[in-house]
Amino acid sequence: MNIINKMNIINKLNKKMAITISLIIVIINIYLFKILVVLDITSNIWTTIIISILIGFNSELKSFSKCLLIYGAIAIIDIVNRLFGSPNDSLYLAWMTLTLLVESFTAYIILAFGIYKKTKDIKLNKWIALAIFPLVIIIHLLLFSKLGVYK
């Protein structure tokens, strides 16, 4: 099965199904990472890529919805990792921040392709949604950068 056929499968998902599957993937990632300690922190990047593809290439969602849903998934994963991550020192904080930036960068690229290829929206809304995503990530870093670090 080639890539184009896989994208057609994603196009057939309605928006409720794509959001539900994305939420289930986030919950499974949190469960496997935090409770069973089966996955490491880099599995969050793969989770973000899968969620970004599911939401970004859905043609029923608008640009702002895609932006906020992908940010929401990234934020939930990041906040849970910062709160319940085992080592609570500055090295772990730096690793978490690096992981968040890699997740955000890959999600942004997928979001940009998804918005321009699959979203039926005016160009101004597309540009604004793509400009809002990095700003929301920066605000997230400012608000939650020290979360989970004990003094």
Q: How is this structure best described in words?
A:
α3 packs antiparallel against α4. The chain is 78% helix and 0% strand. The chain has one domain. It has 6 helices and no strands. With 151 residues, the protein is mainly α. The mean pLDDT is 80.
List keywords for this structure.
151 residues, mainly alpha, 6 helices
Strand content: under 5%
Number of folding domains? 1
Number of helices: 6
N to C succession of SSEs: HHHHHH
Low-confidence stretches: none
Secondary structure layout plus pairing:
Elements lengths: L2 H10 L2 H21 L7 H14 L6 H22 L5 H29 L4 H22 L7
Short note summarizing the structure:
The protein has helices at residues 3-12, 15-35, 43-56, 63-84, 90-118, 123-144.
